[in-house]
Design goal:
The protein is an alpha/beta fold and 255 residues long. It is built from 7 helices and 11 strands.
Length: 255
């Protein structure tokens, strides 16, 4: 990996307003214990440690009773902002908070609190894309996201029946973090809300505004904690990292 460049600082939004209903129980998944720490703290640590990250904002549920009790890392300033009723609304709250500053960071990464296995090498790949794309404004304006090519055959279903098989060569599974110009993402989310668009991640908002975000190779381990079995899988991955010291599990495209 090339040495990190001394470019503009990056803000990070951690989307942590979800309730994690598919996990069951009363505790949101981002606060469930994983290898001795809440899932959220695992998701935070690589950003706290990264020298290019200047500011971290956790966007949480307005009625969150867990975050105030959490001992957050003290190496870097972490701000907490109440989110909205949807993922897009919550991210928009975080962006509005960032843009309230006189000199907001020009670029923002948005990361899921429920992706605790993100690594610094994966963050570096996004930043490397940014550093190498500055000479192409049209490309840079669309931002970038971590993603992996889909390897399974995908079925489109209707009433429980498979009705179509899309070409998996065109399909990628989106991950986070996703990196965008701060002002452009704020505008894209506002426009999508006005049009009533369904926004499932930040890249989809940018796509609706005519941008074409770049796909940067993600990690197989950078999965989202969604179901109870995912915690056991994450525990296994972390145990392996502690044993081998490995942190980068990116796949080669086309394999």
């Amino acid at each position: 990996m090339p040495a990190r460049q001394s470019h503009a600082p990056i803000a990070v939004l951690i989307a942590a307003a979800g309730t994690g209903s598919r996990m069951g129980g009363d505790t949101p998944k981002q606060y469930l214990p994983l290898a001795g720490s809440p899932v959220l703290l695992h998701a935070l640590r690589p950003f706290v440690a990264h020298p290019r990250i200047s500011r971290i904002v956790i966007v949480h549920d307005a009625l969150d009773r867990h975050l105030p009790e959490l001992l957050l890392p003290g190496e870097k300033q972490i701000e907490c902002v109440a989110g909205g009723a949807t993922r897009a609304a919550s991210v928009q709250c975080g962006l509005t908070h960032l843009l309230a500053d006189k000199k907001p960071e020009p670029w923002v990464m948005v990361h899921d609190a429920a992706r605790p296995l993100i690594t610094e090498p994966a963050i570096d790949r996004l930043l490397q894309w940014l550093d190498e794309s500055t000479l192409s404004p049209a490309t840079t304006a669309g931002g970038a996201l971590l993603a992996l090519p889909v390897t399974d055959t995908i079925k489109i279903a209707e009433a429980g029946h498979a009705v179509k098989t899309p070409d998996r060569a065109t399909l990628w599974a989106a991950q986070t973090p996703q990196l965008f110009p701060t002002v452009a993402l704020h505008q894209a989310l506002s426009d999508a809300e006005l049009r009533g668009e369904t926004i499932t991640d930040e890249a989809s908002a940018m796509e609706c505004s005519g941008h074409r975000p770049t796909l940067v190779t993600g990690d197989t381990d950078n999965f989202k904690i969604t179901h109870p079995d995912d915690l056991a899988r994450a525990q296994f991955v972390l145990a392996g990292r502690n044993t081998t010291g490995e942190t980068d599990t990116s796949e080669e495209i086309g394999t």
